[in-house]
Amino acid sequence: MDISCRICGGPVKAAVDLGSHPRGNAFPKPGDTSDEFFFPLVVGMCDSCTMVQLMADIPQEVRYHDEYPYHASNSVVHSRHFEGIAERFLETELTGPDPFIAEIGSNDGVMLARIARAGVRHLGIEPSRQVAEMSRARGVQVLSRFFDESAAEPIRAEHGPADVIFGANVIAHIAHLASVLKGARQLLGPRGVFVFEEPYLGSVVEQTAFDILYDEHSFVFSVRAIRAAAELYGLELVDVEHVELHGGSMRYTLAKPGAREIRPAVGEWLAREEAQRLGEHATLEEFARRAARVRDDLNSLLRSLRAEGKTIAGYGAPAKITTVTNYCGIGPDTVPFVCDSTPSKQGRLVAGSHIPVVSPEVFAANPPDYAILFAWNHAGEIMRKEREFAERGGRWILYVPEVHVV
Ligand code: TMP
Ligand code: ZN
Question: Which of 127, 214, 222, 276 lies at a C-alpha separation of 20 to 30 Å from 133?
Fold first, then answer.
């Protein structure tokens, strides 16, 4: 079953089929799991523009609901990262008279709070109510809505053209990306830039990070596909920069055609993607086979640990945990709990696999023999924080890029 590409209309053929999955960030309450929403987690690639995309259509209102539980400020490393981005914008793009920056999906305001402190005009565009409230409490101005073509005109009328439009870990979530690109073009000033960073297909493939695939990730971007998408909607890809976040992300800078010099990094990364065969269907199919191997390895490790009578728990309940546990068939019989520092996830269950989410204090009070690090992209920060666990003989299980114990 092919679909039409959400960007160019070309044919998208399925390449990776992880089976039936619930929403990554659903986190149902115990006793509230009878009507969980499941969809086929199948990802395909467009034959024409190579954009990697989810085959299923999932209404965005069911994803970014008022209690959307992801808080970008939860990680110290991420907070610093986003403050650093704000500072870079303040020193580069926002130095003119009365500059203006808009952020799509500003979440809890981790980036814009720094901009607000500098007294620079800004606007967060964030449909999820709870996180929007959190950012307002930090002095950030927020518009509660989804960003698309129809949002650009009223925002421009009220605030003027944008010097910067920013988005982090949100643009690849938006199925109506075409409309976002049109809206960005409308909102940008003549020399303005649209900057966004998202998990990078090259890193996902290289590390077999199949858990990056879940309902919210409508797309997994590559430089080649973003360059094509920009061109189709009247923008130009002028710079790319690889960043370490989320196991390997790419930051893309788009501008109006001819407004900015195209940096050499664009050509360099296009060449790397060519060498990696990133735009080829066969590469994704091979990735799917490696994912199945990781699943089998993880299951056999967990089986033998259980046979030895070892206790196992999970650490971190990112949306990714929903994909791994449901794809591998890991439930509370094997992993009786997972801890996560996000209060709104605690007391809830991982969707589908129904592993209870508890606080890190519960983990500390009941240290298992083995902890599966589901928040593997925060390994450095978490292992530093939980040094005591390892010092007392606890071992970490990681499954990216392959199953290993440290
Ligand atoms: P993310 O990979 O999407 O950023 O999500 C990381 C999850 O891990 C998030 O739910 C918060 C959780 N977490 C902890 O529980 N403890 C930590 O020290 C860190 C950094 C994250
Ligand atoms: Zn396409």
Answer: 214
Please tell me the predicted confidence (pLDDT) of residue 156: 98
Q: In what order do the strands lie in the sheet with 188-199?
A: 142-143, 121-125, 100-104, 162-168, 188-199, 249-255, 236-243
| pLDDT, tens only, 29-71 | 999 988 899 999 999 999 999 999 999 998 777 666 777 777 8
> Looking at residues 283-293, what average pLDDT do you find?
98
* Residue 250 burial (10 A CB sphere; 0-12, 13-18, 19+): buried
- Nearest-angstrom CA–CA distance, 263 and 242: 14
Instruction: Please give the CATH topology (third level) of the domain spanning 283-405.
Output: Rossmann fold (3.40.50)
Which tokens go with 330? 């890991």
Ranking 50-59, 311-320, 332-341 by mean pLDDT, the lowest is 50-59
Alpha-helix residue ranges (DSSP H) falling in 118-160:
129-137, 149-159
> 142 - beta bridge partners?
124
Whole-number Å distance, alpha carbon 377 to ligand 2 midpoint, is 29
* Ligand 1 site, residue 385, Cβ cutoff 6 A: yes
24 lines ligand 1 (CB under 6 A): no
Atom of ligand 1 nearest to the CA of 374: 8
Selection from 214, 157, 150 nearest residue 184 by Cα: 150
Mutate to test the pocket of ligand 1, among 68, 74, 344, 358 (most ligand atoms within 8 A of CB): 74
